[in-house]
Structure formats: structure tokens, C-alpha cells
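F.,

This is the one I mentioned.
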């Protein structure tokens, strides 16, 4: 459970760190958003170091969680309901994440 929660927080940190500059560049929001964006991306990098597995394995497994959180962001923040194709893609990605992250050691 700790692993999944850590992946979820890591994904949120990355998405927020990328979303805030997008708001500045595409939506004309304040450049001050770049400060929390930088902090969020720094937190993202730090959070990746908290995982117990080898870095390459962590990055590979993290990708599946990131896809799921990004589609959830699409729905919650952007207001676009995911399609059945989105849900199928997330399911495949999370299955891959589970295989990588929870393999016997």
C-alpha cells in the first residue's frame, strides 16, 4: 500500500509541476506560478528517490501510475470524461506497473 500511495503522490507532483507552467504559457496566468511549479518538480524528483527498488524499475513502474493519474486529471481538472479507450489503456498500464513493482524479490 505504501508503494502505491508513494507512486500516486509522485505522479501528482509531476503533473502539478507541468500543469502550472502550462497555465502560464497557454492560459495567460501569472508567471508566479513557475515558483510552485519548480517546487513541485523538485518534490517529484525527491519522491522518486524514496522507492526501495532500483531506479530503472521504479521509473518503469511509475509510468503506469502516471498514466492513470493523468487520465484522472483529465476528468477532474479538465472536465473531460475518459473514454472506454482511455480506461482500457489505463488498465493495461496499471497491470504492467503491478507486474514490475510487485514481482517476487
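My design for it:
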Amino acid at each position: 500500500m505504501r508503494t502505491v500511495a508513494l507512486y500516486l503522490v509522485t505522479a501528482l507532483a509531476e503533473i502539478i509541476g507541468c500543469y502550472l507552467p502550462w497555465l502560464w504559457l497557454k492560459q495567460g496566468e501569472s508567471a508566479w506560478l513557475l515558483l510552485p511549479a519548480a517546487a513541485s518538480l523538485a518534490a517529484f524528483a525527491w519522491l522518486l528517490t524514496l522507492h526501495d527498488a532500483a531506479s530503472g524499475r521504479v521509473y518503469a513502474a511509475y509510468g503506469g501510475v502516471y498514466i492513470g493519474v493523468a487520465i484522472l486529471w483529465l476528468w477532474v481538472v479538465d472536465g473531460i470524461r475518459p473514454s472506454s479507450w482511455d480506461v482500457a489503456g489505463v488498465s493495461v498500464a496499471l497491470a504492467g506497473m503491478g507486474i514490475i513493482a510487485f514481482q517476487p524479490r
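The radius of gyration is 15 Å.

Talk soon.
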